[in-house]
Amino acid sequence: MSTKKRTAILISGRGSNMKSLVEASRTADYPAEIVLVASNRPEAPGIGWAEKQGLRTAVVDHKQFPSREAFESRLQTVLDEHGVELVALAGFMRLMTPAFVERWRDRMINIHPSLLPSFKGLHTHERALAAGVKIAGCTVHFVRAEMDEGPIIAQAAVPVFPTDSPDTLAARVLEAEHRVYPAALRLVAAGGIQFGVQKVTINQHSGGTDTLFSPAI
Ligand code: GAR
Question: What's the pTM value of the predicted model, to 2 decimals?
Answer without folding.
Answer: 0.94
